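hiii so um. not sure if this is the right channel but i have a protein structure encoded as tokens and i wanna go backwards to a sequence. like what aa goes where. can anyone help
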């Protein structure tokens, strides 16, 4: 299992602004797999240790996002994302393009915009 990369960590940290309980889960997450779809990617997580408190976002089994666009060189329209919360845990991040091909390479220079 791998550590989260800069983009994955940034997504979760931005979500933790609106959903503070996410912050307590980040240190326990490891990447189980990254699946490139050609127009996006699924990043599947597992926990290295049990967390003390499950996420309570007011809705059971949901997907959350900040409705921001991730701008990155090589993509005209940027990336969107959603984070799946199931059974009180972060299960995966879905990153997607807006109709463009993407090889899944995460560049160091990216920004979040509204």
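sure thing!! here u go:
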């Amino acid at each position: 299992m791998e550590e989260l990369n800069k983009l994955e960590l940034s997504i979760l940290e931005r979500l933790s602004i609106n959903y503070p309980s996410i912050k307590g889960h980040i240190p326990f997450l490891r990447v189980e797999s990254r699946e490139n779809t050609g127009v996006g990617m699924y990043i599947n997580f597992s926990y290295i240790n049990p967390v003390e408190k499950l996420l309570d976002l007011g809705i059971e089994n949901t997907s959350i996002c900040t409705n921001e666009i991730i701008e990155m060189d090589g993509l005209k329209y940027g990336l969107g994302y959603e984070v799946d919360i199931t059974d009180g845990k972060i299960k995966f991040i879905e990153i997607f393009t807006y109709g463009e091909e993407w090889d899944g390479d995460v560049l160091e220079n990216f920004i979040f915009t509204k």
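oh and The first strand starts at residue 29 and ends at 36.
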